[in-house]
């Protein structure tokens, strides 16, 4: 199949919409993929990222990034990556613009929207929050509620995945909210580009070298929905027909690259400006990425090392964008054939320096004592909230549990009797993962009697 035909199928403006849709959109003003971006921005789940951990849990400094600012920055990087790649693909395949009306901006908007949403399903306390949820479902306390689950359903919970929770945020509508299913009704292409791990939780691929196989991208509740998207876009299938397991949409590699660039460089910048990493050591590492000509004479003089770091960060991001987009285009054949499955950032010449930055970030930033203390507390908070919510849903005969059920928004627990135990549990995890860091702590304190609400 020619590249033009493959890209024409991969870049689809189809979305889950109401059959009685009355409005039409002028794509010369706002394209379908820009609509995706706008819908994510205005969603409540995206707004809550402003109080979810990126580097430092509940930072006191207003400089430190949250999940919200990280997602916005990743979307900016992703838009540029998408546009550079899109421009070249359209030059190679002019029929895409002439016959399919696909524009350079479409590639940028798709990647930007997927980047904007890439952390939208993350629970409180960052990646340690995922571990805390998994840990609860591994505990004895959770076992009585999981007896009727299939192996795949149990695996969803025992290896809880923020990526799958994010796909659910984007695609699921609570029956109490609306009779129109499909969540934010995003385009199939944006949803596929968002999905870095296009497989269900089973089978687990042990010791895989393929980056898209290391995690999973959707729960059992959404696997049929993803299967529909994959078939519509012509994603290449992996494994047998019994499992929902596909190769990535090629543009998902650009989402991954944008995220990698931002967290490697900008998280490191946070650590430097917080004093967790000696700034002279950090500046030297950043300069190694640029590999400037030693004879190059700069007219810029910095009187504040923080400003110099910001300048270096801007130049580095521009350099990495150019190199990652070039790598994508150089590997286009393999990407479309499903034989390429490694992060673009791993192929960069500066990878040894980026690895050194990563090691230093883990040691000095991510494993900083206050971070570890709050993450450890997060295990208690999220485990405690999950246990209390599970009992409220599955043991409603207790007066204590009924009281707690009244604190949970009804759309998470008011479900038809026909709903399975697994679906009830997923709704509980929806509630807990939706909480911001501070909201989770406040609720935990209240239900444990550590802190009582003020009475007015």
TrEMBL record:
SMART domains: HDc. InterPro entries: dGTP_triP_hydro_central_sf, dGTP_triphosphohydrolase_C, dGTPase, dGTPase-like, HD/PDEase_dom, HD_domain. Keywords: Hydrolase. The keyword Endoplasmic reticulum does not apply. Residues 63-273 form the HD/PDEase domain. It comes from the Bacteria. Gene3D superfamilies: eoxyguanosinetriphosphate triphosphohydrolase domain-like, Hypothetical protein af1432, putative deoxyguanosinetriphosphate triphosphohydrolase like domain. The keyword DNA repair does not apply. This is DNTP triphosphohydrolase. The lineage of its organism: Bacteria, Pseudomonadati, Bacteroidota, Cytophagia, Cytophagales.
């Amino acid at each position: 199949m020619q590249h033009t035909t493959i890209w024409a199928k991969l870049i689809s403006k189809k979305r889950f919409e109401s059959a009685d849709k009355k409005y039409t959109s002028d794509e010369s003003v706002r394209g379908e993929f820009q609509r995706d971006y706008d819908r994510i921005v205005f969603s409540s789940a995206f707004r809550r990222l402003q109080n979810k951990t990126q580097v430092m849990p509940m930072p006191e400094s207003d400089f430190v990034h949250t999940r919200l600012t990280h997602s916005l920055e990743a979307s900016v990087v992703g838009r540029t990556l998408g546009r550079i790649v899109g421009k070249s693909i359209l030059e190679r395949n002019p029929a895409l613009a002439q016959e399919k009306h696909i524009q350079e901006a479409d590639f940028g908007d798709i990647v930007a929207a997927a980047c904007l949403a890439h952390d939208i399903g993350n629970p409180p306390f960052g990646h340690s929050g995922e571990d805390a949820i998994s840990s609860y479902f591994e505990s004895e306390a959770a076992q009585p509620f999981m007896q009727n689950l299939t192996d795949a359903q149990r695996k969803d919970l025992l290896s809880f995945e923020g990526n799958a929770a994010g796909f659910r945020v984007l695609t699921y509508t609570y029956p109490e909210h609306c009779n129109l299913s499909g969540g934010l009704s995003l385009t199939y292409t944006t949803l596929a580009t968002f999905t870095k791990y296009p497989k269900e939780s089973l089978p687990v691929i042990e010791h895989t070298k393929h980056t898209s196989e290391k995690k999973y991208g959707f729960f059992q509740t959404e696997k049929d929905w993803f299967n529909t998207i994959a078939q519509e876009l012509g994603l290449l299938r992996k494994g047998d027909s019994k499992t929902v397991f596909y190769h990535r949409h090629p543009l998902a590699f650009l989402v991954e690259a944008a995220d990698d660039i931002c967290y490697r460089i900008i998280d490191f910048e946070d650590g430097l400006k917080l004093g967790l990493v000696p700034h002279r050591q950090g500046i030297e590492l950043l300069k190694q990425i640029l590999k400037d000509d030693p004879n190059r004479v700069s007219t810029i003089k910095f009187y504040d090392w923080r400003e110099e770091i910001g300048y270096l960060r801007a130049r580095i991001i521009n350099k990495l964008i150019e190199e990652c987009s070039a790598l994508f285009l150089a590997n286009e054949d393999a990407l479309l054939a499903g034989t390429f499955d490694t992060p673009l950032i791993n192929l960069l010449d500066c990878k040894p320096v980026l690895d050194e930055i990563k090691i230093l970030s883990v040691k000095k930033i991510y494993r900083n004592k206050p971070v570890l203390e709050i993450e450890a507390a997060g295990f208690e908070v999220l485990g405690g909230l999950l246990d209390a919510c599970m009992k409220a849903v599955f043991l409603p005969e207790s007066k204590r549990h009924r009281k707690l059920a009244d604190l949970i928004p009804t759309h998470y627990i008011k479900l038809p009797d026909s709903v399975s135990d697994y679906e009830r549990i997923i709704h509980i995890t929806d509630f807990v993962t939706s909480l911001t860091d501070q909201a989770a702590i406040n609720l935990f304190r209240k239900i444990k009697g550590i802190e009582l609400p003020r009475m007015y």
